[in-house]
Amino acid sequence: MSKSKPAAAFTRSFALPTTATLGSALRAKGLLQELRARLGGKAHRALALDGMALTLSMGEEDEDAFSALETRLAALLPTLDSLPVLPREIEDILTITTSERRRWLEDGRLVSAGTRTIRLRGRAKAITFHVFDPRQVEALLDQGTVDTWREDDVLAREENRQKAAERRRLTKRVKAARDESINRERSPANDLKGFEQFFKDGLLR
């Protein structure tokens, strides 16, 4: 029978700034991982996420460690809103698909704030990906820019379909004209010298 976890003697909650989370639970989890990595030591077990708030909890024997972590955590919170937004986070914040993120990044509508390279556990090769400025992402969210981009994409696809249809029609006309020209050249009448004059003279009547 497993022993129940003793109640924490010291507990404090910290609200994550909305300018840092941008309303995304996925980004809130990322911020938790970032804080745990920065604080190190006992922070991995002591620091947890509860909705959009952080909870720091430690036992009675860790009073000094709790006080130190509490001070460091309070100092780090105001810096979280400057952390770059990761690909999965921007997709969650803006409610966009991976293909939309890639397309808009490629055509310049989404502006990269640089790249990050990490080595995932269990993978031999490191991966490099683009990250984004949180203030740019916030502006896109507030201005509803994504809806405009999607409308632009619909219009662009329709225009491309019309252009493709016109190219197919033109190709068919060119092919038909070429086939007609080839057929005229292969006509038996063209193989008989003087046939046209012979026909005009009415010698076959």
Short description:
This protein has 205 residues and is mainly alpha-helical.
Assign the structural class, choosing from mainly alpha, mainly beta, alpha/beta, alpha+beta, or little secondary structure.
mainly alpha
User: How many DSSP E strands?
Assistant: 5
Helicity, in percent?
A: 40-55%
What is the percentage of strand-forming residues?
5-15%
Quote the distance from N terminus to C terminus.
117 Å
Strand order of the largest sheet: 1-3-2
Distinct helical segment count: 9
- N-to-C series of helices and strands: EHHHEEHHHEEHHH
Roughly what is the average pLDDT, rounded to an integer? 86
Largest sheet: 3 strands, antiparallel
Overall geometry comes to elongated
Q: Please compute the radius of gyration using only Cα atoms.
A: 34 Å
Low-confidence stretches: none
Give a written overview of the molecule:
- The structure is a single chain.
- The protein has 205 residues and is mainly α.
- It has helices spanning 18-21, 25-39, 43-46, 63-76, 87-94, 98-106, 134-143, 145-185, 195-200, and strands spanning 10-15, 47-50, 53-58, 115-118, 127-130.
